[in-house]
Input
Amino acid sequence: MNKFVKLPLFLGGVSLIFCTTLAIVVNFCKPQMEKNEQKKTEEAYASLYEGEINILDLDEKYLDFKDYSQIKDLKKIEHEGKNSYVYSLTTQDPQSGTVSFMLGIDSEANKVDAYTVVANNNSGYAKQFENVDAVKDALVKYGDGEGSFYRTAGATKTENAMKYAVNQAFLHYRNNFMGGNN
Amino acid sequence: MSAAFTLFMKALLTSNVVFSLPYGICSYLGVSKSKKNSIGMGLALTFVTFLATLICFFLNMLLEQFEIGYMSTICFILVIASVVQFVEMFVKKFSPSLYKALGIYLPLITTNCVVLYVVKQTTDMSAFYGSFNITNSMGLLGDFLFILIFAIGTALGYFLALYLFAVIREKMDAAPTPKGFKGVAIGLICSAIMAIVFINGFAGVF
Amino acid sequence: MEKQSKKSIFINPLIKENAILINLLGMCPVLGVTTSINNALGMGVAVILVLFCTNTFISLIRKWVPDEVRIPVFIVIIACFVTMIEYLMKAFTPDLASNLGLFIPMITVNCIILGRAEAFASKNTVVDSMLDGLGTGIGFLGSCLLLAFFREVLGTGGISFNNPFTGKQLFSFLPLEAIKMPIFVQTSGAFMMFGLILGVFFAIQLKIEESKKLKEKKAKENLAKEVK
Output
């Protein structure tokens, strides 16, 4: 056979065989991957509050996160008669690793009432944010009275990234749920 | 375009591909034995990365249209191999002396992790934007420009690290190092200090 | 060329020709992955699987591969296997996969795999290639574990181990937590630790070679004395 026909034919044949096998394996894995995602979010929401929770979806207009690069999702959670807005945030800092966490803001007291880390990628620093109380103690009160918000203190790379993410959540909350723009 | 400038400086210094998320260590340790090789390798790598990112950006869009995103690794590597082959032919034709100087290092770029790292970012643009804290307000054109700037910045960052390491290694080879540490081992310890400079020293500047 | 015995094919890459410590190949993932023993173990197992599969298949088709398309064919096979393992890991060991991140697709451009395929699998029988793949992979795993052990013990004060399939912590033994040095979990610590390990390793090698040379010299002198 002509050389210029044989070579691409061989390469094409090998590629076809192996890529079909790959396609089969990937489609085999896909349902399990989706299950993993679902399980993670459900576990995360369940770990935020004690007792029964009710996850409510929000109106589309609140879910426009074009200007908030760290906010991934927002749900309204009803628990024991109170309402909280739970933000799913992801800090993506190449040096210290990714931390995905959820921040719950009590809609009446405007304070952070829940915090949990969903995924912690390889970072020794981010371990300090696993404990809810540690974050509450690290949040420094900014301002007084009606418009007071909590912000994270600290200056390490991960803490800065977390601060950036938390502030974005607060900004979104303030712009959407605090009764008009402040 | 301050976002573009920040991205470039971050890719070059703060998130230097060799020192903060270690990729490309193989050739970093192998090529830095001489300064001339480092310069050749760095320039060739920049060129290859730029071309490969250009092609793979559109290739990725095509793959996602057909919902076969998992083929991205295979296709990207084939693209990179072809780009390297093409660059090799180009250099051979137009500058045989440069070709002789680069020698074995041009085909080595195919297995360089830096190129694959850069082109892999095209598959997950949201993660890319998140890690560099960029907000893209220009849609597809913004994607395209940002990824190209990132590609050049990263490749030049690798070039910078490689050249600095080559210079240091030249001096270290003449210095009285303990037996067994000569060559690669002491070079790695120097790289540790360089890594501290690049990660912690440049943090917060950009 | 002498035919190597099956045992030596398997044992050689473990210590004598260890891919990372002696040949200094395929070091890209080593620094990024060895932040904890979990990750190193996961990466090592992935590399063993990939090496085993690619060596086997490349050895199977070695008689029919035309010489000019050799490298692209190898690349396609390696990339397919790596992507398969990547998706299997993402599905069944999601925490490990997200910790390793981009390092799993990077296995494709790891010099070890292409090197073994080129140098060994394309020229030897299937069984030999399987053994070689296993041996090289286990050697790689060994050196990764060594580096990860030191980095984790010095960086976090001890060892903690998670079940890769469910992410739950199996045990965590942190005796030195009070004097931990987090820099070893970062890249600069990786460079430092790797440099120290290599340096000590080479120094030991030099010592062994020196004592060997000394023995040979003594043997020669004894022989010369006897002849006299």
Observations:
- Chain C touches chain B through 46 residues (CB under 8 Å).
